[in-house]
Amino acid sequence: MASTCSLPAFNLHQAMPTSKATMCYGKFLCSYSNLVSKQSVQSKPIFISTDSTYARVLPNAISMNRRECERFSLRNGLLCKALEIENNSLFRVGNKFQLDDVIEAQQFDRDTLSAIFEVARDMEKIEKNSFGSQILKGYLMATLFYEPSTRTRLSFESAMKRLGGEVLTTENAREFSSAAKGETLEDTIRTVEGYSDIIVMRHFESGAARRAAATASIPVINAGDGPGQHPTQALLDVYTIEREIGKLNGIKVGLVGDLANGRTVRSLAYLLSKYLDVKIYFVSPDVVKMKDDIKDYLSSKGVAWEESGDLMEVASKCDVVYQTRIQRERFGERTDLYEEARGKYIVDRNVLSIMQKHAVIMHPLPRLDEITVDVDEDPRAAYFRQAKNGLYIRMALLKLLLVGW
Amino acid sequence: MASTCSLPAFNLHQAMPTSKATMCYGKFLCSYSNLVSKQSVQSKPIFISTDSTYARVLPNAISMNRRECERFSLRNGLLCKALEIENNSLFRVGNKFQLDDVIEAQQFDRDTLSAIFEVARDMEKIEKNSFGSQILKGYLMATLFYEPSTRTRLSFESAMKRLGGEVLTTENAREFSSAAKGETLEDTIRTVEGYSDIIVMRHFESGAARRAAATASIPVINAGDGPGQHPTQALLDVYTIEREIGKLNGIKVGLVGDLANGRTVRSLAYLLSKYLDVKIYFVSPDVVKMKDDIKDYLSSKGVAWEESGDLMEVASKCDVVYQTRIQRERFGERTDLYEEARGKYIVDRNVLSIMQKHAVIMHPLPRLDEITVDVDEDPRAAYFRQAKNGLYIRMALLKLLLVGW
Amino acid sequence: MASTCSLPAFNLHQAMPTSKATMCYGKFLCSYSNLVSKQSVQSKPIFISTDSTYARVLPNAISMNRRECERFSLRNGLLCKALEIENNSLFRVGNKFQLDDVIEAQQFDRDTLSAIFEVARDMEKIEKNSFGSQILKGYLMATLFYEPSTRTRLSFESAMKRLGGEVLTTENAREFSSAAKGETLEDTIRTVEGYSDIIVMRHFESGAARRAAATASIPVINAGDGPGQHPTQALLDVYTIEREIGKLNGIKVGLVGDLANGRTVRSLAYLLSKYLDVKIYFVSPDVVKMKDDIKDYLSSKGVAWEESGDLMEVASKCDVVYQTRIQRERFGERTDLYEEARGKYIVDRNVLSIMQKHAVIMHPLPRLDEITVDVDEDPRAAYFRQAKNGLYIRMALLKLLLVGW
């Protein structure tokens, strides 16, 4: 893509002119087509502003604020001088995010996950240390929820507001008067995209998010589509493991509870297969065992896995015990099977006592009694921190989809 | 109204002193009672601020921000020098909006419509080119919806937020605990007006908006009151015709579908009667024909109209084909009549093929199958642009009611 | 608590160095452990910023904005020089609020009430005279409503937004998917506290607010918990009496209507007992008389009270006639008793005619016909002003809980 910029581009193989740093504090348009490595397909002019507010992205231009500009200058200035090209130049500050939408866990490769997690760490700092971040000031997110999920909705809305963005809420889009009158999802999306800059959608039908993304000219994030995908949950789970254990390669994870129906554990197993030397233990009542498709996939990727009926033994070996809720609604009339299944693997202080000191307990929440309340006070109970990490992952994704790296 | 201003007023018949332009960038109070034409009844002192935030309007003062001030200076400065007085001085930047509330389409004359449309065009630019407009910063809009209408609600809330304003939402005011307990609409309004600066109300009863406006000390916008009025829809329809066709005088419009029950087409016909050489074609199944009151009104205003059963012929002649949905609920038990009516006039690629190149298809949405999906990709399919225009019209009305021209 | 501050603390018994005043306009950390009186337990370093936005509160630091800093300097500067120590040093600008949560009326003593009312007066000025206050910019309030109460919710949300804060709304947390799935209130709170800075909760169970506050690491405000407490209503009632009558000591208050079930009148009677020479009249149908616990409490505090069946006589003597709604749902099948009770004490123009000129009529709203509509226009009808005062009280409490005095 040709640069539309009239200012002379500075070449990668020359030191960045000193005056550039100064210019960063004004407003200018420049091309960095030559600055980034040849792997980069990106050569949009950048619009840099020192204002607290962004200028709306010009066509073919990338918007950067002062902080980003400083980071960009520092990083790229050094790179230029050293004539080095980072492998992850695709994730360089100022670049466009590789994804237009976030629809399913399969979209993310390991490098992209690492880069997103780095942004999520920045988001932790923003949320904790600064007041009123303005990164997404002027942006409007529409939460289009066709089934209620207050936890997920609040998490996304908090993420948007923590970054200075605004929110339009539809808590019960299924009764959206238009949907009730027979309007198609596509028509609804074409209307809502006119009112907002990004759509976060939860739907009761598998595949709905993909249809929405195919229609929308603005980014769509899947916040769960029925029995289908819930990619931000999958990302926050992997992020939590990295944050808690400090690594993803070489970890041992016990997945416990309803492994047949839980999309959470299925997505997690899928994403863990991208890392090296991972060992997965499946601990579940017989009626809700992990299905063969995931086991086969893990085997094909060389991931070691094992089924076990002994939670204590697994807990003693694992870095992560990932507990899940046995869902009553999956058992229909067979409440006897439900009662048998749900009482079988409880994480309590006995389990804690056998776990390693550095290991953690995770849970996607809500929990009923599959983790006893007296576990909460133990520092290895990571599930509320995990919920909080959902905020950082969603902040990161909103930032990436709306303003790029 | 006497000026409460202590600064000397500058006279219309003298050139504006040069220093005035400079003063605009500070904060001062001045009178423009003599500046504007004699038709103007407005002579409030103006409070001008260079801050990004408005100063709350002083009693008897008009608030202007820097941008408005610049426009005011330029326009009026030039006017002063040329000793010219524009006809539309009532709509001059800084003047109060003529309406206290927006309740029904009948409130708008042609000049006011033109002036509002000019503001709506400004709003398009603001929405597209600038980030985080602050025109309505500090203002709070309450959306008081006694029946759900997510499309309309999101459109108003997006409009408010695009201008920097804030929103209090009540999606289901009918179950408003107080209304459920028997509180009158008037009492509810007296409470809500204490929490907000403007009320956007949708109600299931015709006339409710008028009652609310009669009670409230703050502006009320009618976002639809039952079978009554929905004036912002009427305005956005006319605005869309002007934007798409480039004119309103001399146009030919085909109104298609349910003309008996659709308040949309009734209001549109009413507003089109204000323009010159308009020709209206009514195309509808017999059971839902346009009622005599509108036909008589058009005749009395000298508007040419014609009923036709031939959609193809009408489509070939019209600038605008305005399709509407046949509403099943109007037919009660007679589903046979409904099925017959709804299948009769479908806008499809055949209709498109006969339409003129510059003509457009409009629809108030939601649509079912009265416009086939394959029409969407044609540039003459204007209905999603029309929905978007609702945003600009609502931005314009919010701006006008809260801060004036 | 030891000061964590590295800057030298200035001593109370020395005049504040002149340079301090200047420093206030920059950014610095100082200790005021010695500045405040010995009664104060507070010795946190203060973070002072001239920015329009707050810096996020550092651990062990108190955040002040420029206006607060000026007030702090002026007041304390003078105090220092005069070596005087005010009694209410606990309420000095910059100090932390004494309460971590607002759960019940019993938390407030008379001095605290006075100090809160002073802040509420400031809030009136902010709401009326300035646009877009930024006092709570960057703060996020979650409204967690387990039963709908639009009036209370809008009041809190308006309060937050009037101070520049942001809001996450859950209008129907009872159907909160997680609560519906059996999640405990405690788990919900642990999740929501991760997304927000303060929780405003309404619940259908008495004691729920206390449980939430015990769990949350952020402030919780009780917006009504079933038959339990509704402390912000109690505060706004007392505030309204002070604003309308000009005093609280020596007043005569007639409580009228359903005194058995109304938590409003019970809390009000309780709070009035903190003032001197108060006289309370109970006027109610026999079936809904004030219960003995409150009567006994008043007697134990030396508050004069009297039951009366003569509304006219009471109205002629009182400063405040506090009318309440007779709630049909309290009478079950006995609609005959309900009809008898509800028609018995109506405040109408006859009652008005006998009231003193300075006296006022109050009502917690919604009202049905226990106050006739023709009373509304009389300046002594204070109930809509009372509703508005709820906004100021809630602004004050949000400000106090989030940024302190």
UniProtKB/TrEMBL annotation, chains A, B, C:
Pathway: Pyrimidine metabolism; UMP biosynthesis via de novo pathway; (S)-dihydroorotate from bicarbonate: step 2/3. Residues 101-242 form the Aspartate/ornithine carbamoyltransferase carbamoyl-P binding domain. Gene3D superfamilies: Aspartate/ornithine carbamoyltransferase. InterPro entries: Asp/Orn_carbamoyltranf_P-bd, Asp/Orn_carbamoylTrfase, Asp/Orn_carbamoylTrfase_sf, Asp_carbamoyltransf, Asp_carbamoyltransf_Asp/Orn-bd. It catalyses: carbamoyl phosphate + L-aspartate = N-carbamoyl-L-aspartate + phosphate + H(+). Residues 249-400 form the Aspartate/ornithine carbamoyltransferase Asp/Orn-binding domain. The keyword Glycoprotein does not apply. Pfam families: OTCace, OTCace_N. The keyword Transferase applies. Keywords: Allosteric enzyme, Pyrimidine biosynthesis, Transferase. Coiled coil: none annotated. It comes from the Eukaryota. GO terms for biological process: pyrimidine nucleotide biosynthetic process. NCBIfam families: asp_carb_tr, PRK00856.1. Catalyzes the condensation of carbamoyl phosphate and aspartate to form carbamoyl aspartate and inorganic phosphate, the committed step in the de novo pyrimidine nucleotide biosynthesis pathway. This is aspartate carbamoyltransferase. It comes from Ilex paraguariensis (yerba mate).
